Amino acid sequence: MSAATSPTTNRKTSQTTWLTSWLLVMLAALLFCGWQISRGLQFDTSILALLPAEENSAAADFANNQLADNASQRLILVVSGQRQASAANASQLQQALQQSGLFKQITGHTDASQLQQALEQLYDWRYYHLTNTDRQLLENTPTNSSAANPLVSKAISRLYSPLGGSLAQHLSDDPLQLFDHWREQALPSHGISLQDDWPTRLEQTAKGQLWHRILVADLNGSPFAMGYQQQVGQLLEQLKASVDGLSYTGLIIHASYGAAQAKQEISTIGALSLVGIVLLILLVFRRPSYLLLVFLPLLCGCLLAMATCLLLFERVHIITLAFGASLVGVAIDYSLHYLCHRLEQPGSADDRPNNRHSPVMTAITLGMFSSVLAYLAQAAAPFPGLQQMAVFSAAGLIGAWLTVIGLLPVLTRRLPANPHVAYLLRGLDHIRQRWPRANQPSVAVVVLLLAGLSVWQLPRLSFDDSIVRLQTSPLALLKADQQVNQLAGGVSWSRYLLVSGNSEQQLLQHLQQLQPELDQLNQHNPGLYYQSISQQLAPQQQQQADYQLLANQVYAANGLLDQFTQQLGAAELSAAARADFHSRASHSISPDQWQQADFSASLRHLWLGQFENSYYAVVNFGGAVPTSLDQQLQPLLADPAMRDWLQLIDRPAAISQVLQHYRHSMGWWIALAYAAVLALLALRYRWRAWRIVAGPALASGLTLTLLSLLGMQLTLFNLLALLLVLGIGLDAGIFLINSRNSLYTWLAVAMSALTTLLAFGLLALSSTPVLMYFGATVLCGVVLVWLLTPVFTLGSQDD
Amino acid sequence: MSLLSRLRCGRILLLGMALSLPTALPVQAQTLATELDADQIARILTPTDQLQGQFQQDKYLAVLPRPLHSSGRFVYQRQQGLSWQIEQPIASTVVISDSGISQTQNGQLVWQSDANSPQTTTVANIMAAIFAGDLATLQTTFDISGAQQPDQPWQLQLTPKSEVLKNFFSQIDMTGAQQLQGLVLHEASGDRTEIRFTIEAD
Prior knowledge:
Low-confidence stretches of chain A: 1-6, 348-356
Strand content of chain B: 35-45%
Strand order of the largest sheet of chain B: 1-8-9-10-11-12-2-3-4-5-6-7
CATH topology of chain B: outer membrane lipoprotein receptor (LolB), chain A
Oligomer: heterodimer
Number of strands of chain A: 13
Shape of chain B: globular
CATH architecture of chain B: Clam
Number of domains of chain B: 1
Shape of chain A: elongated
Largest sheet of chain B: 12 strands, antiparallel
Radius of gyration of chain B: 17 Å
Mean pLDDT of chain A: 85
Largest interface: A-B, 46 and 51 residues
Number of helices of chain A: 29
Low-confidence stretches of chain B: 1-32
CATH superfamily of the domain at 428-460 and 650-799 in chain A: Multidrug efflux transporter AcrB transmembrane domain
Structural class of chain B: alpha+beta
């Protein structure tokens, strides 16, 4: 198995073999990682990539990626105040933003002529687009009927209004004012209009009118890039102080808050943790070189883990890496146990008779096997995230183990005796003698009671998988967000409808088919609005049909046009109107033309284009989006006429679902891991194996009980931490039983527990929820495992 | 409405800008005998909370050879705003108030614009001020000059101060004796609307 257990004949050769294998494996891993990095390493960061393949629609992924820019690359700014002041401040703001050079583009001050140009383009296609209402009115008009038509009488009424002015100028090219109706649909204002050349929302307050000027800045860097983030943050801080009534929102604000928080925590929690571990190792081993000896196996383990993951998986997920690396933390046990053992047997490793080494190497190997087995059990779960994590941590443990077996004996060949340890051991001995053991009846009763409590509590644990609970931004930031979004008429990028079609035209037909349903939804939810390409662009077929409908009903002889001009007493207008209409035959608009038109600016991003064999577009919602929107959309999603090409993408819900799936299966796989490990250990320890598994099992049960009694809603991240507790507990149990509870093993177990607590337990102080949940569980679980394992292992000799 | 849609969407600039009408402005065309000073103008209009009567309206549109003639009743009340009830040739009602402008026909909405749009608010305020004889409000938005011949109705010319408002009205003419008798709304396009009132006692 290891060098230590091989027959005595040629130990040196055996050690050289292990060293050579270590060297070769690590070199290969290093080269492979280097090659991968040079090819451009790409990590998955979308949490949705962690969903099982069949649940994660590739199309949804495609859509999310396409839309990511809209969601993350934008900063929305609002300057509020009196009319003059707000306009002046907005100008000052736009100038400062432009001068900073930090933004790709700033949309704010708008010349009315730009809007006019967009409208002129829109006007060009007026004969090919009708609103649903106008279309129905025209379809229901009997041809050549002389009865008063509502379209005609409404159009005339408006001309007679004292304020009817500008419509009169379009008597010959939009006589029935149908374009005016379509314009309201194609370019809705949502309460925002161009005032003093600024997109503005007016608010009536108790103190009079408030003018909100709206600007949108497109980032020219990644919102997650530290340097860029900082520059934007500083600029905004300055502007906030100098521009009255400024508020803003954007992913970058949250990202920069998160980064600042993480930075602060790294400098406090991180420093505390590092200093603690270094002090602990120096205190026990008294030599700085031991730091290297302790951590080298961990580093090598992570290297091998990384290489294995890159080899086996196309893309490695960043979350997998983070949690995988923390699970590899268990491997610190191997170096600690080996080094403590060497303290017990100082001098040159080579001088020692071979059998002296065998117990610790056997225990390290057994510990490695059981932990790898426990972690690899997760790989069987149908979740890409768990599989990657399992592979990463298993490979990491193997790498660390190989380093301890292959390299550490060489590095510790000449190890001086360490007299300081004697004091520590004397103290530990004192404790060991008084430690409760499960063999004592009173202790057994307490243990059984605690076990009973954990089991009783298990079905009563309350879990919360909602992504909202993992929200890191403070409430004030979220509130400002909501306010700015409301003022700026922001749409939601986290929840939208994804519509598909086999061709561009079929996609447009589907959008068209959806529109009446969406209109109905609007009617039921005051304040809600939707954005769909169908508001500006109809399928070719529909455009032709609309033109034909106008030709038949309006522009034909004795059609509505003639009725209209006769009622106005200006029959001679008909000829000009007819000429204009016929001059625009075959003037329909294609998706390409639409995308290039100025007026499509507000909806263009909804067109996602081709992916695999289909074309996709998005319909999104803004304004007062009701919480029940998902439910209200259900009938549409279930409609046999639509369900094949319509899906709802609800990212928060999807992420919560990922978390819930993972949490569910994690629970079962942890139980399975315990069973597998118990079976493996039983091969060697027979029925004493329960003594090893009992510690981490009881510690985990009690940890969950304790956390939930403290009122914590449990999440996936609590369960992830339990894997670490299992790994630490298994090692402690195996080493203690193997060494017959030797004091050096007690020392190693204590150091293992303390380093784990310092490395991960301190995360309980974090204000990032994910880390806090993980840390609190490690803190509680590792302390308990440390206290409980000896209770079961002491007295194992009596079995 | 189109007055509003024009500004909001710049549609006024789309077409028909090059038109210029021969200016036959009956109210303005009188010889201006006596220029009125600010004090006199201030005394001309009697502020009122309520005004109602008949109207005759002629709309001169560049593209039509004949004016569009309509008639009906109007009721102005400070609280409710102005209700413009067109009876001929097609019945419909335009309501201009603090909450916006809307037009209905046979009880059905033809068109509306709510008070969120500042253009709507501006137009509503101007109309209210004209009918209420609220000179102070009018003076904040218009330069006002006036003239009166002895024993003849007075005439006022209202010229918008702001460029924005000039997109609506290039000029408004008012004429009256004790009370408002006539109103001419000149639009930037050259179109104009002439209205004659017959005021009824309450």
